[in-house]
Write a structure and sequence with these properties.
7-stranded antiparallel β-sheet; mainly beta; 3-stranded antiparallel β-sheet; 131 residues; 0% helix
Amino acid sequence: MGLFRCQYQIRLHQPVTGSASTIQSLPSVAHQTPLMRIQPNDRIISAPLDGEIIALSPRHLTITALNGQQFVLQIETTDYHAMVDWQVRIGDSVSPLTILGLLEGSLTATSLVVSRVHAVSQLTKAVVANS
């Protein structure tokens, strides 16, 4: 019976305009599941989903989705000076229309990776949507 099955579906939006890589081309890390990698064409980074900011550093941001699942947006770069000027703070609520920050440094040497951290359950799915 499916009475007690609760399935959450999270729709991820591309956080920056650019060309996205497929999920299969990303290596898995022990506590993270990579969902997308984007080579940015623009410096503006927006939120990939609805949630709350729980951690910030110059090169990564962690968001807790409405269902409690955590997602990390990480900047991978070979440019030593590349980082993000975040426009949000810990505790802020965000949506895909929210501007999270501005990329600083070389765009050609930078990519953004969105990963899922500590999946809530086997019944939780993440759907990647190009916006």
